[in-house]
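Reopening this one. Same input as before:
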Amino acid sequence: MEHYDVCVIGGGPAGYAAAMRAIDYKKKVVLIEKSKVGGTGIYNGALSSKTLWEISEKLYDINETIASKNREKFELPWSDVIQTKNEAIFDRKIQYSAHITLLQEQSQNNCQFCYERGTAKMLNNTEVEIINKKGEAKIISADNIVIATGSRPRTVSNIKVDHKTIMTSDSIENIVDYPKSLVILGAGVIGCEYATIFSNFGKTKVYMIDKAHKILPFEDDDIAKMVAKNLKNKGVTIHHDSDLVRMEIIDGEVEYEIQDSTGKSEIIRVEKALLSIGRIPNVENIGMEAAGVKMSDRGRHIGDVDTQTNIPNIYAVGDASGRIALVNVGELEGRHAIEKIVNKNCPLLTYTNVSTIMFLHPEVATVGLNEKMVIEQNIPAKIVKIDYSLIARAIAKRKTQGFFKIIVTDDEEMKILGMRAIGAHASSAIQGVALLMQMNESITQLAELVHPHPSIIEGIQECVRMLLNKSVFKSSVFQDGLKCYRLVNNEKIPLQRL
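Same output, byte for byte:
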């Protein structure tokens, strides 16, 4: 029986990161993947959907310019869109494949890394059975096991998903042409991203079913309203405060019935439907019970502390951990699990300053607390906002829709609690603030930094200068574009600035 220091089950972002970190520590590691290395980080997820978003944003921008000159809009065949997406996936796939092949060749002398294609099942807390595609089975043992089995889209029992007419995010990209109409169940990040993509292309009438009174219910109203306004301007119909009564396939189309908060019902027919109601971890049939790993009703591991399950030598990372379902978080957890194996006293993993991107129109980037959270937790804070219309680079790009919002403690130190950015280059602007949060530094560092000009991030510096009452533009003059206020007992009190 082959024995390893670490066995990683699952070759998605979290599992792959774990295996590579184990190599750093010269551990003998086996990585087991039943399907495709890279997981949803490449396929039907982060890379593929964001490639579609990039294409759709470029096309939308081009057509907006063309339309302003009263010219006929440019049309891009769906086959061209999918070809570009597949090329992006192929590029990344080849990188992973070549990396694994070369690592195994380098490992032949000391057998430090092994890649196994097949399904894995824990027989106990140290032995794992691997069954390859031919049905051949073998058993390996390991001192430590890392579960990184990913997740799949959530479905509901009363809606039949055939992956052709009613689809999930795993199958929506397999359509053969732009749907004439599409209903999206769910108004969270993924639902809003696909609504953005298809409305950008301008070939699909999009509907969204939103149980809440606003999309992106976890975000601040100013973010959600701007995204919703843009979706509606592109023809998207958002059914706010609506419950889905039924959804079924009739005559090859999707018929759905909704009921709003007043009890009024409406029946609508569309060509396709997309369920975007969250994801659930893939933890079935991998021997959790045999290994003694306990689970909660929601599929999260009971008693897991800092990626460790209730069984000390078994770790759960990525979507399997039941925490934040993001590629960067999964990679962070995978690397941390190995570091914890090597050093049981390593610092605890923190999730407080995770940067995120929402691929909407405009794009949204976040880190730390938002204004809604500060109000809910009754935290005294100062908040400053600058509109993109006052940032030189945004004016040059002719993309002046958006804003930066920075939240700091209401004291002399003014430590950064969080930031929200919506607009062009928002994702590129967030990291500097995230770093200062991680370092527990105050905003004064940003105020004195020499930023490149013209750049979007100059807006961050102007925000900080406003808090210090030394901004170039004065909020008393540009009251609509520059705002500075404090939260006291959840009330907004304007700060007097020149």
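So the earlier flakiness isn't reproducible anymore. For the record, Residues 368 and 418 are 4 Å apart (CA to CA).
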